Amino acid sequence: MKGRKQFLVLGLGRFGASVARHLCQMGHEVLAVDSDEKLVDAIAPFVTQAVQANATDEDALVQLGIRDFDAAIVAIGSNTRDSILVTVLCKEAGVPLVIAKAVDDLHAKVLRKVGADRVVFPERDMGQRVARTLDTPNIIELIELSGDYQIAELFAPDAWCGKTLVEVNVRRNYGLSIVGIRRGKDFLASPGADMTLHEGDILVVLGKQRDIDSI
Asked: Is 170 helix (H, G, I), strand (E, B) or coil?
């Protein structure tokens, strides 16, 4: 998301605190909220503002100016009832983007039903990503897109090094698109067909999981 935006993070467990800190580091304004005073005090130095409040209290959310935020992250995971209620309150208040943390598939289904724009499973998603990188060691990073498509960072196979992209013909032979190459400290976006691959190059590829796994 480009430009300075305002984010509301509700729930300051490990996930919520991490999101709040990183958003603030990226230059955004972040209001972090939790009913636990210790958690609020712990995050305060790292965000724009930290407030102790009960997020399930509609009046409290109104006082926080919830309508003025670009997005709300409902990071309440341990109490599913509260996370559902807070998600509803955020949508009813007109927050344009509500991202909610779910603990299981049923919880996620309910969150979507009540209006969550996006549902995340932090622990499960990270577990899947770690498992994939362990199962396929040359994959460095993986991002799931819609459907079966993924963006992956992977080391250039030895057999490709010294060849140009047109010689490797990744699109025809593997069904993948190379959208960028990390070479040392440089990032080469949309590399041309005459680009020669070097040992140690990290390829940013777009394609289906089975095609990424094939290399």
From this structure: helix
Mention every residue, 6+ apart, whose C-beta is less than 8 A from residue 103: 77, 78, 80, 121
CATH 3.40.50.720 fits 125-214, yes or no: no
The answer to whether the beta carbons of residues 82 and 56 sit under 8 Å apart is yes
**Beta strands, E only, 83-194:** 98-101, 118-120, 139-144, 149-155, 177-183, 186-189
**pLDDT (tens digit, 9 = 90+) per residue, 62-91?**
999 999 999 999 999 778 999 999 999 999
For residue 58, how many other CB atoms are within 10 A of its CB?
Answer: 16
In CATH terms, is domain 6-120 a member of 3.90.180.10?
no
Residue in the structure block whose two tokens are 């932090």: 122
Buried b (16+ CB within 10 A) or exposed e, 7-40: bbbbbbbebbbebbbebbeeebbbbbbbbeeebb
* 6-28: pLDDT as tens digits: 999 999 999 999 999 999 998 99
Query: Which SS3 state, helix, strand or coil, does residue 41 take?
Result: helix
Distance separating alpha carbons of residues 159 and 156, to the nearest angstrom = 8
Q: What single-letter amino acid sits at 129?
A: R
Instruction: Report the predicted TM-score, pTM, of the whole model to 2 decimal places.
Output: 0.65
SS3 at position 61: helix
Domain boundaries, the chain: 6-120, 125-214
